[in-house]
Amino acid sequence: MVILRARSNPAIAITIGCSGPTKAFMKNLYRYFFRGLITILPVALTLYLLYLF
After folding, report:
1. pTM surpassing 0.70?
2. Where are the domains of the chain?
3. Contact at 8 Å (CB) between 29 and 15?
């Protein structure tokens, strides 16, 4: 998360980044993506090697 502050008024801050439900959603999305990748990758690699040889 990045916080930008205005030079003229330090009370004004703009927050850039994920927070709350969006952050949890992205965390779950990455978790499911990598879990699926770890599951599918050995199967696909095995099938490819069987096809190759």
Report:
1. no
2. 18-53
3. no
13-30 core/surface letters (b: 16 or more CB in 10 A; e: else): eeeeeeeeeeeeeeeeee
Q: Which residues pair with 15 in a beta bridge?
A: 3
Helix or strand (DSSP H, E) at 2: strand 2-5
User: Which one-letter DSSP state was computed for residue 20?
Assistant: T
Q: Which residue stretches of the chain are H helix?
A: 21-52
In one-letter notation, the amino acid at residue 35 is R
Averaged pLDDT score across all residues of the chain: 78
Quick one: which of 17, 14, 22, 25 has its CA closest to 1? 17
In the chain, the percentage of residues whose pLDDT exceeds 70 is 62
